[in-house]
Structure prediction request, 193 residues.
Amino acid sequence: MARTGDARDRLVRAAMTSFAERGFHATTTRDIAAGAGMSPAAVYVHHASKEELLFLISLAGHDDALAVVTGAAAQSEDPADRLREIVRAFTTWHAEHHTTARVVQYEIGALSPAHRKEIAARRRGIEQVLREAIGYGVQRGVFSCADVPGTALAMLSLAIDVARWFRDDGDRSAAALGELYGDLALRMVGHRG
Prediction:
């Protein structure tokens, strides 16, 4: 007999796959249960709603992404290396986890207002790490960037969009794409290397 935690995890994984393939609104609890190899009633035994499943997926994905950018920011005191590493890591994460990231980034509108608020706080945390890295480079005189918030938003948008189109069998690997975007980030801030 499967442990409760295993069943819950199977349902979360099945929901993530279904949401990525069909979108949140087109996915039924029957689809999720079938993907987990369980009866439709099992969804409600282990989770309050389909939206709760989306929230759990979104929470885990945003927590992972926040940890990635926070860890990348701590790797160097050099402003250029710090910014390059943050954007490289964030982009690579979105490519390597493109299925999850697609759900996390593009289904946020289906969350309840309370859940959306929790996710928005994590999104602001990710954006703050990037803003601080750009601002640090401006203060040190190595970046020429007149609009730190706008530039940070543009960088995040570029990396997030990777989840929409990236394919494992594409022309560029996740790592190569991360390197490219890291270098592009330095151009965007007018790096004076």
About this structure: Residues 132 and 148 are 9 Å apart (CA to CA). The mean pLDDT is 93.
